[in-house]
Amino acid sequence: MKVFLLLSALLVRAAIALPGPAITKRSNTSLPVAFACEALSLAFKAETFYPGSVNYTSENEHFWTPTDYSAPACVFTPKTQFQISAALLIFETFQANFAVRGGGHMPIPGYANIDGGILVGLTDLNQITLSSDKSYVSVGPGRRWEEVYDFLEPYGLVALGGRVGIVGVPGLLLGGGISFYSNQYGFASDNVIAFEVVLASGLVVEATSTSYADLFWALKGGGNSFGIVTRFDLLTYTSPTICAGIGEYPSTEKTAFLSAVANFGQYGDADAKAAVIPSIFMLASLNTTVYTSALFYDGTECNQPALVNFTSLPAIANSYGPTTLATYVSGTDALIADGTRQVFQVISSIADASALEIVHDTFVEMVTANIYGVAGLQASVAFQPVTKNFIQQGINKGGNPQGVDITKAPYFWMVENFSWTDPADDALINAFAVNVTSVLEAKLTAAGQQAQFKYMNDAGYGQEIFQNYGAGNLAKLQAIRTKYDPQGIFTYLMPGGWKVATA
Ligand SMILES: Cc1cc2nc3c(=O)[nH]c(=O)nc-3n(C[C@H](O)[C@H](O)[C@H](O)COP(=O)(O)OP(=O)(O)OC[C@H]3O[C@@H](n4cnc5c(N)ncnc54)[C@H](O)[C@@H]3O)c2cc1C
């Protein structure tokens, strides 16, 4: 029966899809999706789930924030790349809309889930193996970074990935990926040496710097427009022990804290083993603002000049000290809010003290004036320093789609994060997030501090990502998308996420 169904799908596809008119964006009807769910269920009964089943609910709620829960018509959890090929055939045949979810940490409704379509949950594509020479680790898209770090720890190795362990492997890599090691080695995706990808045609290919090299380049930051990645081969690095922890400082330390951030922003690659994630945290229920910084050093000696401007601040709390990457992330994962409503927005500036002042003062003032009364509100800005060496590493490793302008580096890539508890406040917070971002951008531009690049993984709904990639790379990404997915399966049948074709 399964064979018959797939053959029929193939024939129908051949009849309707060749030579292949481009798919136009269309609203989904329930009938094509119902047929596709039924076809999946016939072919892959054990991997297809309907509303009401335990697996459907757990896959639909396999997201960091409830704002991402949707109402998919069915859920498909493939166990192999070949099941994905067959599913793509079914989706195309029935013209059924679908979404793909890895770790579920992109906090944007509809970007990795779908109302009325098919949710493809990659949970069971969870391989993790070390190469025989230990130079790379092969990881399936169902994995989270904490699992990668745990797996590598006994070997004294690490791979570049999330600074928070619960984040999913695939989304982070397809958007670039800022790691504690990025100051030394570039984006996490600059350190991928192979992607196994299921293309729109159903073909499973391995993209490397020498085979499908254009696709390989595109996947290092081009998002989900090109295929479904079923395996990432990641370079490993020796880093058996590190220094890491979080310092928390009172609001009275504003000047010294911002000065430490500005200094690291400007001179952070003097010692590329150091990394920081400095943030302002506004905790409305406690009516307080605190400053925090995750501090990191790739080495065993924790007393480092590169971090002294932070370690010398009077701290309310400080956990910085010797540890391992796996231990550090498992400790901080417990502190990351899960289950609250969340939204991100991204802005970027050149690494200058006056940019920090503008963002800090405007953000605090606008949050206090407009949304401070919202139940459970936490509002933060993380000032992520991006050094020249970070950008140079990507260039050295063959370049990436982001094409960040190294001549204007260093930068701050800042992520605003709002979390709250009551769905009734969704509209207010979403509107505020967009508004404060446009005010911040206008002020940074007026001060000559605005930077062009917007980091996809920290962005909010509809922010312009590919339009701000450098070196004319959007046109190149669009051409690669057309080559590998001429009908736009991953653009129109899979509408969630940033799409190069419509940027
Ligand atoms: C608490 C927290 C901490 C974070 N920390 C960091 C950090 O340290 N560094 C950093 O760079 N970013 C960080 N991020 C941002 C994070 O990288 C992005 O949200 C990323 O998209 C999450 O990946 P995921 O697999 O969990 O996402 P998902 O929500 O599952 O997917 C994100 C996008 O990727 C697509 N996608 C997923 N898997 C595949 C696949 N196999 N093939 C094709 N497309 C796919 C989805 O369709 C979706 O559009 C953090 C986010 C959170 C919420």
From TrEMBL:
<dbReference type="InterPro" id="IPR016166">
    <property type="entry name" value="FAD-bd_PCMH"/>
</dbReference>
<dbReference type="InterPro" id="IPR016169">
    <property type="entry name" value="FAD-bd_PCMH_sub2"/>
</dbReference>
<protein>
    <submittedName>
        <fullName>FAD binding domain-containing protein</fullName>
    </submittedName>
</protein>
<dbReference type="InterPro" id="IPR050416">
    <property type="entry name" value="FAD-linked_Oxidoreductase"/>
</dbReference>
<feature type="signal peptide">
    <location>
        <begin position="1"/>
        <end position="17"/>
    </location>
</feature>
<dbReference type="GO" id="GO:0071949">
    <property type="term" value="F:FAD binding"/>
</dbReference>
<keyword id="KW-0285">Flavoprotein</keyword>
<comment type="similarity">
    <text>Belongs to the oxygen-dependent FAD-linked oxidoreductase family.</text>
</comment>
<feature type="domain" description="FAD-binding PCMH-type">
    <location>
        <begin position="68"/>
        <end position="239"/>
    </location>
</feature>
<dbReference type="InterPro" id="IPR006094">
    <property type="entry name" value="Oxid_FAD_bind_N"/>
</dbReference>
<keyword id="KW-0560">Oxidoreductase</keyword>
<dbReference type="InterPro" id="IPR036318">
    <property type="entry name" value="FAD-bd_PCMH-like_sf"/>
</dbReference>
<keyword id="KW-0274">FAD</keyword>
<dbReference type="Pfam" id="PF01565">
    <property type="entry name" value="FAD_binding_4"/>
</dbReference>
<keyword id="KW-0732">Signal</keyword>
<dbReference type="GO" id="GO:0016491">
    <property type="term" value="F:oxidoreductase activity"/>
</dbReference>
